[in-house]
Amino acid sequence: MNRFHVHLNVADLEASIRFYTHLFAAPPTVQKADYAKWMLDDPRVNFAISNTGRAPGVDHLGIQAADAGALGDLGRRLDAAGGSVVPEEATVCCYARSDKYWTEDPQGTRWETFHTFGDATTYYAGDHACASDGAACTPDVRQVNPRVQKGSACCAPESVCC
Q1: Any idea what DSSP says for residue 15?
Q2: pLDDT, tens digit, for every residue of 5-36?
Q3: Which of 46, 70, 79, 100 pairs with 118 at a CA distance of 20 to 30 A?
């Protein structure tokens, strides 16, 4: 079963962790100096917050696929919806290793579909962050040249974006 994903940028990580720990009646599943994540079953959501220099608010929405086959189905659905779809294979982002597809809805809200297959020791891989502003793992899909190298860092060395 797939899981809904929400990623918020927050100004005060510790205060936000306290707030969401009380709201969800559970501590974070993952907690780092700049990031926390709750993998909840009620409601079924992967809820993440980070303090990586971006303006507070919704960073992106997404769907976490249960497996590689479900991710392929989601990628085909994104393609059918229109717009640019940016694939990422074996990327390191948000302390996890995942295959992903990124897109934007008609309002410009970034959407991430992904299948996570392992943990990582860093928020992102490489010398650059994953976004066009250099602070988070969500690319501006209108300005992205899709990375196709399996196992490479989220951002290509020749650019600041995935």
Answers
A1: H
A2: 999 999 999 999 999 999 899 999 999 999 99
A3: 79
